[in-house]
Amino acid sequence: MDLRLTPSEEAFRREVRTWLERNLPPGWGTPSYRPPRTPEEQVAFAREWQRKLFEGGWAGLTWPKEYGGRGATVIEQLIYNEEYARFAAPDILCLKIGLSLVGPTLIACGTEEQKRRFLAPILRGEEIWCQGFSEPNAGSDLASVRTRAELCGDEFVVNGQKIWTSVARYADWCMLVTRTRFSESKHHGLTFLLVDMKSPGISVRPLREMTGEAWFNEVFFEGVRVPRSNVVGEIDRGWDVVLTTLGHERAGTTPHVRLQAEARRLARLARSTSVGQETAASNPLIRQKVAQSWIETHILRLSAYRNVTRLSRTGIPGPEGSILKLFWSELEQRLKETAFEILGMRGNLTEEDRWCADGGFWCHELLWSRSATIYAGTSEIQRNIIAQRVLGLPRG
Ligand SMILES: Cc1cc2nc3c(=O)[nH]c(=O)nc-3n(C[C@H](O)[C@H](O)[C@H](O)COP(=O)(O)OP(=O)(O)OC[C@H]3O[C@@H](n4cnc5c(N)ncnc54)[C@H](O)[C@@H]3O)c2cc1C
Questions:
Q1: How far apart are CA 386 and CA 113, in angstroms?
Q2: Atom 7 (ligand 1): residue with closest C-alpha?
């Protein structure tokens, strides 16, 4: 692992920085900035911001140029991500599935026609995607999906239900894992489809999360017709495509810069929160936990660099991505729990309450961080992958 950047990589970093300085929304990051409030406003904002990134040449950095990407290296992608997080630039949640999962999956497994049709609209923020993988009885055990797709002529007819489908209410398209054949092995007989969310027979029901937001949904498919040309990979061999998507989901960029910024914010919180006559920072146990968070964010950064070095050699995310996912998701929770220890009961106050600390940031974050060890594979599943596929340990 070589941590030094080449002169051209340094120049690239400066270019990203300058562009962000000039193009972030006016007032961004200042107390006077009014962020979009409702989900609908956030979606409209995300589309607009993504279009601006695309026009600036900052969308799909590592995607091939012929599909609208920049053809950059994975090191440049890492530099870009670091700068983006350093500026705390907009978190375009609703577009992430298209950008970080659908795009890489289609580049690896899609037909030429699919790449030409779908990649550029993702980069321009024109089409929002959702991920129709989990079902009520198929989450960790994803290969158990039962949503049926039956081939009738040149179309599949899809019936079934998905759950926990983030942003489905706003999505134009869904990457859907279906069962086309019941065979001895549940990993065989799956087919990966691209489904137009405006197709007749699809209904979406929002699910409220403990943060009060409703990004999750249940999605029902009743006789939904999907053209055969929307199969990614081969019919009945969809598991290979699923593994490609999951590899990108787990080994994708790590949030080390964001977590470093949050560790700094945690230290400020400890220094500014009074406990009796003193501040929380004068408590040695709190000091130790804050320092531990800081150390762990640095370990995460170095692990991310090692992962990128490997990725730049192979081009394919390997099972080692599970180590990063496991580490950052649990670090994120520990960091937020320390904030709660500092704040005590006041940590429960949300941004609507005038007595809340730090704009209600920690209350929302503590709640949201509970999901980090569930989505993209739970911690137990990451540990299983590390044991079996990284360390080569026998199955119990
Ligand atoms: C914020 C968020 C966003 C999400 N977005 C999406 C989305 O857009 N699309 C989508 O398809 N899904 C999405 N999910 C769903 C997510 O992928 C699943 O919740 C996850 O895979 C776990 O599945 P499950 O909820 O069915 O839990 P289960 O699989 O039922 O697991 C229950 C518990 O059993 C444990 N367990 C299960 N199997 C094993 C095993 N073999 N060994 C050890 N322990 C095991 C798990 O670790 C867990 O603790 C999202 C989830 C969250 C939290």
A1: 36
A2: 165
249 is catalytic: yes
CATH tag for 254-390 (out of 1.20.1560.10, 1.10.443.10, 1.10.10.10, 1.20.140.10): 1.20.140.10
Residues lining ligand 1, judged by CB closer than 6 Å? 130-131, 133-134, 139-140, 164-166, 371, 374-375, 377-378, 380-381, 384
pTM here is 0.93
Structural fold of domain 129-237:
Butyryl-CoA Dehydrogenase, subunit A; domain 2 (2.40.110)
* 227 sits in which H/E element: strand 216-227
Q: Record the tokens describing residue 374, joined without a space.
A: 């569930």
- Please state, in angstroms and as integers, the Cα–Cα distance from residue 83 to each residue in 7, 86, 340, following that order: 17, 5, 29
Q: 321-343 and 361-369 helices cross at what angle (nearest 10)?
A: 140
Q: What is the mean pLDDT of residues 154-176?
A: 97
Per-residue confidence (pLDDT) for residue 253, from 0 to 100: 64
- CATH tag for 7-91 (out of 3.40.50.970, 1.10.540.10, 4.10.320.10, 3.40.50.10490): 1.10.540.10
> Which of the residue ranges 181-190, 245-254, 268-277 would you say has the lowest mean pLDDT?
245-254
Mutate to test the pocket of ligand 1, among 102, 145, 217, 374 (most ligand atoms within 8 A of CB): 374
